[in-house]
Structure to design on (590 residues):
């Protein structure tokens, strides 16, 4: 199977992220490969192990290519970085445009992405790429079975209060949720190899896009301002002995918080 | 272009979801500023019940019924919704940040080439009919206030439990039946089945009250005491990644960065240390209670009320106390 995986390097959830000004954030330099994208890479590698073929990881990023290196170290065959000064400040729809434009005349069977990127938490890129390519997509899958790629896939997705199983012809795009697979830990040898791998760069003109197709001016939404989350008042520890503390808590929940 | 506000209705087993009523209630407020009508789009099969319960919440109901719409798929929903939008040009289209909304809205926005803000925790509207959206990013470490370009509709999905349902809208909707037109060969995806997990309980992302247990609960069997507490409070039971990875609870109950965001009125955490990955999922809960044996557990930094104590003692006592006061209150 010919599989493409869309990957992004994002701030680790443990990284400090603070509002610097209305339009600027301060982000601690502590990045990792988006967890859901690692799940997607794992799924792709398992399919390659079953059917043969090729796994290619793609990222749109002017600076960070560590997600590509992570992909290579896990076992991806090829990696491409889309970078161009005009991409600076692009929204997820522009990112999707770049990826779909590149993919549109590639002979792929499957595209995998993460459920969402742990920075913008948008969940836009995957479904948008599928729309631009005119292929079906299923979001947030936790199960994937392919017996014969020509006959399509059986996927399970998370829905409220249950799990829904669908059949879907290929080519298709699926976004991956935790629980699909546990990403493998790459071997040290492969990590070293990936560190040295030459990453191929592709710019906008190479795929036939112009600077007006992407970037902040092409976005259909506008950031007014960033602001910090509302602060919770300090915790009130109920110091009474058991079981009095339980009675006090219930009383507070009813009379002070008024949530029961 | 019209100044109408549209809401995509969601329903399950014939019952309209709370988020739909929330969005229609908020839309009714917004529409006072612009004088536009509030409409809801309802797709599915055998929707008499749903239509009836939406009658007082909207000025118009666009009703599309077909067996092919029994389960949501983007193949079946998107073309119908897109053509309705292209015909009527509403100013705003809202939906829940649910499994359906998150699957459909980004693709629909790309299709319509319009602006979309996902997973909002608040919306407001100016006199000029412009929507402003608030959403958490970086897992809730930062909030962003966002506005839209001139493109219409302005699209957003909104988290459960964001707006208060106004039972007194007293509208009387005009029901507009729209034929389901599709080339059946375009329906590529087929829903083969739906496995219900967790019985009749609401999903943790929808529930008003969530009680959760972490690794401190020590085994799958011990979750029984939380189930009992949940039954008394009509709550849903959530958990941490550590517990899911142990195989004690299902993935769908995981709260946090690689699980679900919850917006409960009351969240109670038992034997949960409060790792950042976990607490990022509870940022929009109203009241948080933590019970942990470790007085230095991080969870207390995110809680409104705390008890330093043994959950095996506290949980059963809480269940009894709630039973007692709820019986008195009734
Ligand atoms: C990329 C990534 C994503 C992640 N995503 C998530 C996520 O989405 N959700 C999530 O939850 N985690 C997530 N994690 C894991 C997270 O970092 C923590 O490891 C996890 O939340 C810890 O779970 P816990 O609180 O149940 O267990 P622990 O940290 O082991 O805490 C157990 C607590 O129970 C207390 N305890 C023990 N016995 C008792 C008792 N008898 N009574 C009362 N208290 C008791 C202990 O004092 C302790 O505080 C993620 C991690 C990574 C790296
Ligand atoms: N810059 C990017 N380059 C490649 N893939 C991306 C990029 N941004 C997002 N993706 C993919 O799209 C998914 C959802 O991202 P988002 O829509 O930003 O939440 C991610 O998990 C990735 O799989």
């Amino acid at each position: 199977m010919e599989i493409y995986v869309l990957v992004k390097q994002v701030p680790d959830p443990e990284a400090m992220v603070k509002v610097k000004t209305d339009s600027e954030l301060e982000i601690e330099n502590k990045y990792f490969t988006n967890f859901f994208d690692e799940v997607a890479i794992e799924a792709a590698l398992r399919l390659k192990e079953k059917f043969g073929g090729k796994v290619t990881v793609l990222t749109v990023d002017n600076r960070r290519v560590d997600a590509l290196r992570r992909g290579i170290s896990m076992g991806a065959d090829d990696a491409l970085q889309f970078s161009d000064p005009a991409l600076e400040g692009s929204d997820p729809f522009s990112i999707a445009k770049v990826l779909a434009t590149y993919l549109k005349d590639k002979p792929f069977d499957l595209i995998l992405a993460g459920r969402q990127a742990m920075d913008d938490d948008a969940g836009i890129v995957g479904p948008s790429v599928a729309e631009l390519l005119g292929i079906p997509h299923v979001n947030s899958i936790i199960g994937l079975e392919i017996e014969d790629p020509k006959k399509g896939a059986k996927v399970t997705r998370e829905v409220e209060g249950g799990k829904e199983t669908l059949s879907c012809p290929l080519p298709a795009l699926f976004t991956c949720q935790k629980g699909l697979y546990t990403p493998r830990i790459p071997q040290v040898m492969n990590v070293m190899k990936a560190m040295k791998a030459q990453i191929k760069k592709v710019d906008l003109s190479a795929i036939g896009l112009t600077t007006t197709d992407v970037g902040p001016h092409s976005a259909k939404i506008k950031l007014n301002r960033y602001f910090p989350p509302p602060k919770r008042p300090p915790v009130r520890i109920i110091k009474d002995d058991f079981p009095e503390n339980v009675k006090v808590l219930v009383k507070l929940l009813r009379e002070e918080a008024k949530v029961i | 272009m019209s100044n109408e506000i549209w809401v995509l209705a969601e329903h399950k087993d014939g019952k309209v979801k709370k988020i739909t009523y929330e969005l229609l209630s908020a839309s009714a407020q917004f529409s006072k500023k612009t004088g536009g009508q509030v409409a809801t789009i309802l797709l599915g099969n055998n929707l008499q019940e749903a239509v009836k319960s939406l009658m007082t919440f909207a000025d118009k109901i666009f009703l599309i019924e077909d067996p092919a719409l029994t389960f949501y798929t983007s193949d079946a929903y998107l073309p119908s919704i897109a053509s309705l939008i292209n015909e009527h040009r509403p100013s705003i289209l809202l939906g829940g940040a649910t499994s359906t909304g998150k699957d459909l809205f980004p693709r629909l926005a790309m299709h319509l080439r319009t602006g979309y803000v996902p997973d909002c925790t608040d919306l407001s509207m100016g006199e000029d009919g412009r929507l402003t959206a608030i959403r958490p990013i970086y897992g809730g470490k930062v909030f962003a206030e966002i506005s839209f370009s001139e493109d219409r509709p302005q699209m957003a999905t909104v988290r459960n439990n964001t707006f208060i349902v106004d039972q007194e809208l007293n509208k009387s909707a005009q029901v507009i039946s729209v034929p389901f037109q599709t080339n059946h060969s375009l329906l590529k995806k087929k829903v083969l089945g739906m496995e219900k997990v967790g019985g009749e309980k609401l999903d943790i992302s929808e529930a008003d009250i969530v009680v959760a247990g972490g690794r401190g609960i020590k085994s799958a069997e011990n979750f029984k005491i939380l189930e009992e507490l949940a039954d008394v409070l009509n709550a849903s039971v959530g958990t941490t990644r550590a517990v899911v990875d142990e195989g004690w609870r299902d993935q769908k109950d995981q709260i946090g960065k690689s699980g679900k965001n919850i917006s409960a009125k009351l969240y109670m955490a038992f034997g949960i240390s409060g790792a950042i990955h976990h607490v990022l999922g509870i940022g929009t809960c109203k009241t948080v209670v933590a019970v942990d044996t470790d007085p230095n557990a991080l969870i207390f930094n995110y809680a409104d009320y705390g008890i330093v104590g043994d959950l095996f003692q506290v949980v059963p006592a809480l269940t009894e106390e709630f039973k007692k006061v709820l019986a008195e209150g009734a």
